[in-house]
Amino acid sequence: MQTQLKRGTLELCVLSILRRGDRYGYELVNIISGCMHVTEGTIYPLMKRLKDSGSIDSYIVESQEGPPRKYYKITDGGVAAQKEQETEWRSFSTAVNRLLDGEEQL
Amino acid sequence: MICNSKTEFLTNLRIALENNNVADRSDILSDFRQHFEDGAAAGESEADVCRKLGDIDEIIKQYISEQSDAASTPTGGAMPDTSGFEAQSGEQPYSQPRYVAPQPQQFTPSAGKIVGILCLDTFVYSWALPALAGIIVGLIGVTISFITTGIISLIGGTAGLFIDISGLISTGFASISLLFFGIMISALGGMLVIASIASVKGFINIIIAIINHHANIFTGHKVLNKIGKKKEAVQ
Question: Which ipTM score applies to this complex?
Answer without folding.
Answer: 0.88
